[in-house]
Write a structure and sequence with these properties.
Layout: E1 2-3, H1 6-26, E2 33-39, H2 43-59, E3 62-68, H3 74-86, E4 92-95, H4 105-111, H5 123-130, H6 139-150, E5 159-163, H7 170-178, E6 187-191, H8 198-202, E7 207-210, E8 228-231, E9 235-238, E10 246-249, H9 254-258, E11 263-264, H10 271-291
Parallel strand pairs: 1-11, 2-3, 2-4, 5-6, 5-7, 7-8, 8-11
Antiparallel strand pairs: 9-10
The protein binds NADPH dihydro-nicotinamide-adenine-dinucleotide phosphate.
Length: 292
């Protein structure tokens, strides 16, 4: 069994980005600048944004955190978005989701300038990605593709079953893995909550991408010998024996599935850290594309 070590690979990618940024600094060029907009005080969002800002600092990017009150109006947030779109010192920005219920998430995401949309959630970027044009690819599927590529996991002609069809993970990874190119050329089946006989499908798969958010859903009897398992799931499960009061679980019953898998990602330390590294990669791309 080979562990697809997202922590190690993401550190490698961060070092590569850091080297590129040092080169920019030594040539007197402006370094990439990422901003993060956080509305409210949701615990998980604060953690995610905090680690994104720290990662920016580590690789030498400029970063700005815009922390807004939970009760901010949609109109004020849209004004803030417009300001960020106009800011010439800023290469890219993200709006941390979820937003409070009184704000229309779709309206906000549509207001982001696609050239600064380093999360890759704007329809213009999604469309460009689907058409195999230069685009910001959402960080999680981008991270999965990088991990598959760097570990030389065979995908060409393989059957991949993606469980989950969300706009940020399941749907884009199913498109990317079916496209031509590295980590692509797979024959992809997309499964979701209406799929019948899921285990029969996953048992036929050479590669399974689990992105549904149900802890330890994929068990060893659902997997064929030698399969590649990508676990995107992150769920906090209450655990009083842990100092934080919870543990993080993936969508895969790791201990038993790892016995049958050839390649497998752990949780934590798999796709999570790759996601942050690819957000940095997208910001670097934004800096390079906007300069050219
Ligand atoms: P969503 O809730 O948006 O989508 C879940 C998908 O799973 C839906 O398509 C749903 O089907 C499908 N699904 C739900 N139940 C079943 C079932 N019993 N059988 C088959 N399919 C099912 O989740 P996300 O895609 O946003 O996230 C998925 C997981 O990945 C979560 O745990 C999330 O925390 C994690 N995540 C991790 C990231 C990382 O950095 N590692 C980044 C983003 C997400 P339907 O469409 O029919 O409802």
């Amino acid at each position: 069994m080979i562990l697809l070590d997202g922590k190690h690979t993401s550190n490698q990618i961060k070092e590569e980005i850091k080297d590129t940024v040092s080169g920019m600094k030594s040539r007197g060029e402006r370094v990439p600048h990422l901003a993060a907009v956080l509305v409210g005080n949701d615990g998980a969002s604060l953690t995610y944004v905090g680690s994104k800002v720290r990662s920016c600092e580590y690789v030498g990017f400029d970063s700005t955190l815009i922390h807004l009150e939970e009760n901010i109006t949609e109109a004020v947030l849209l004004k803030q978005i417009e300001k960020l779109n106009q800011d010439k010192t800023l290469d890219g920005y993200i709006v941390q989701l979820p937003l409070p219920k009184h704000i229309d998430e779709e309206k906000i995401l549509l207001a982001i300038d696609p050239k600064k949309d380093v999360d890759g959630f704007h329809p213009a970027n999604f469309g460009r990605m689907a058409l195999e044009l230069d685009a910001f690819i959402p960080a999680t599927p981008f991270g999965i593709m990088q991990l598959l590529e760097r570990y030389k996991v065979p995908t060409n002609g393989k059957h991949c079953v993606v469980v989950g069809r969300s706009h940020i993970v399941g749907r884009p990874i199913s498109i990317l893995m079916s496209q031509k190119g590295p980590a692509g050329n797979a024959t992809v089946t997309v499964a979701h909550s209406r799929t019948e006989q899921l285990a029969e499908l996953t048992r036929q798969a050479d590669i399974i991408v689990m992105a549904l958010g149900i802890p330890e859903y994929l068990t060893a009897d659902m997997v064929k010998e030698g399969a590649t398992i990508i676990d995107v799931g992150i769920t906090r499960v209450a655990d009083d024996s842990h100092p934080k009061g919870y543990v993080i679980k993936g969508d895969v019953k790791f201990d038993e599935v790892a016995q049958k898998a050839h390649f497998i990602t752990p949780v934590p330390g798999g796709i999570g850290p790759m996601t942050i590294a690819m957000l940095l990669k997208n910001t670097l791309l934004a800096r390079q594309w906007n300069a050219s």
